[in-house]
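I'm curious: can you give me some protein's one-letter sequence along with its backbone structure tokens because I've never seen that pairing?
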Amino acid sequence: MLNLILLTFSILILSSNASVLDFCVADVTGPQTPAGYTCKNPANVTAADFVFTGFREAGNTTNIISAAVSPAFDAQFPGLNGLGLSIARFDLGPGGVIPMHTHPGASELLLVVQGSIVTGFISSFSNKVYIKKLYKGDMMVYPQGLLHFQINGGGRTAVGFASFSSANPGLQITDFALFANDFPSELVEKTTFLDDATVKKLKGVLGGTG
């Protein structure tokens, strides 16, 4: 029994020394690194650094994907810096879609609060697809780094909130990575098996060149 008490006490001591600072509010005026932002001077930290009000209004879905993503990552919500979590709001208009994408730095948990969303992800080891239609109150988890998507599942605007296991989960949208830059069309065609006309059309839609 004494050994157990001593072990517990030792763990508590180690835990108390694991984090010297209570928080590390992001100094967004400085560079962002893989480890996050440097800490803002504690003397300049205010309650506002720990509050985010950007979800009060719906995002603008008047765009090519009829969708909006409003992030509350460390860059927008400095109090999250170093805490290993963040959140974003999704607004999907009728026919709206968040194209196939990945978050290299985090797993994601989606909660639907309005309407319905058809969503899924693709496993990396077998390319198996896991798809489900979610309704208000439903959640789905997407493991870190896996391709996934969201599509409005009904005729009215759908809203969801996605939480992430990182203050900066990262984002790469597959369509934009292939067709919204200067990736040479010839190489895109060889790596995707798409014909030249299709590649040029998609580049035209997404603003790519080459």
The radius of gyration is 21 Å. The first strand starts at residue 67 and ends at 72. The CA atoms of residues 25 and 42 lie 8 Å apart.
